[in-house]
Design a protein that fits this description.
Helices cover 47% and strands 8% of the residues. It contains 13 helices and 6 strands. A hairpin with a 5-residue loop joins strand 5 and strand 6. Helix 5 packs antiparallel against helix 6, helix 9 packs across helix 10 and helix 10 crosses helix 12. It is elongated.
Length: 326
């Protein structure tokens, strides 16, 4: 009878212990703000457990106990996103699978500042560190960047996957490599009279001027025709960029006085191209400069439907402007 009682006691204690461990291992506590935890290469299991405890992710003892009971001993170094209060099992699973990759999508026409904001928001790198490198193209040994003073325009807009705390240099190198893969072959096989830098600058203007893909080759032809005739580009998109760059103003609808802003980016005042791209254009805009639609148009004006009316003479341009539609 005494043996049976002891057995029941042991059984109850074992059951309670198992329940406690199950709750401790598989159910997290109250979640807090997401943290980035860096697991350096070469750290022991004990050191990793203390690093996790220091960041209030999981208790060190419970983490090591779970690894022992589950026979998990291969933890991978890297940068991880964890929430305080995550279950021990989930933390161990992530560390055994390796660091996560964050999906980052840069839309066509994003400027480097916008890209920097996304990168910082996603925990990839600091916006300031990313932007510091944009005006240092000499740090990136690509022959096609010779003579380029800014990487704006070459940061190819696409979907990328980065680990948290990736160096900004690695992020930019990845974007430049994508630019090389996607667009450079087109440029090298084309017969354009423009340099690569000029193509990128013009494409960035087309990106901001044309909403519709099918209009881009025609918009490109207008700018190229004006360049060939020595006319100022007179792009409203460059004025919007100039107002933001020179005065910090974010303007959607330009007023007549805005066209007088003094800036090397204001193509109403300055002949030729701006000194650098005003955004990072997508492939459609880049290709529109290499393969513009044949036309003798010199003007276009935005219509109520979001498309443009194109004209050959200034008088015709004014009539479209006044009518609000072709």
């Amino acid at each position: 009878m005494r043996m049976e009682s002891k057995f029941i006691v042991y059984l109850c204690i074992s059951w309670i212990l198992c329940l406690f461990l199950a709750l401790a291992f598989y159910y997290g506590g109250e979640e807090g703000e997401r943290k980035i935890v860096v697991i350096e290469s070469g750290l022991s299991t004990r050191e990793i457990s203390h690093a996790l405890q220091k960041e209030d992710v999981v208790p060190a003892f419970l983490f090591r106990l779970f690894l022992f009971l589950s026979h998990q001993d291969k933890l991978m170094a890297g940068n991880y996103f964890f929430y305080p209060g995550e279950s021990v099992e989930e933390v161990a699973r992530q560390l055994s699978q390796g660091p996560p990759y964050e999906k980052i999508t840069f839309p066509e026409g994003f400027a480097s500042e916008q890209m920097a904001e996304v990168l910082e928001e996603k925990g990839i790198c600091l916006a300031k560190d990313y932007l510091d490198l944009i005006n240092k193209p000499e740090l990136f040994p690509a022959s096609y960047l010779q003579g380029v003073t800014s990487l704006e325009g070459f940061l190819f807009p696409d979907t990328y996957y980065f680990c948290p705390l990736t160096s900004p240099q690695t992020v930019i190198e990845t974007q430049l490599r994508r630019f090389e893969e996607v667009f450079l072959p087109h440029y090298r096989s084309s017969f354009t009279f423009l340099s690569l830098k000029e193509v990128v600058i013009l494409a960035s203007i087309v990106e901001k001027e044309a909403r519709w893909k099918e209009e881009k080759p025609l918009v490109a032809s207008v700018f190229i025709n004006r360049l060939k005739q020595g006319m100022k580009l007179q792009s409203c998109a460059t004025v919007v960029y100039a107002l933001y760059r020179e005065k910090g103003l974010k303007v959607k609808n330009l007023q007549e006085e805005d066209l007088t802003v003094v800036s090397p980016f204001n193509t109403y005042l300055v002949s030729g191209l701006p000194p650098q791209a005003i955004c990072n254009p997508g492939l459609d805009s880049l290709l529109s400069i290499l393969y513009p639609q044949r036309s003798d148009y010199l003007y276009f004006v935005l219509q109520d439907d979001g498309k443009h009316a194109f004209s050959r003479t200034y008088e015709e341009h004014l009539s479209y402007k006044e009518a609000g539609g072709p």
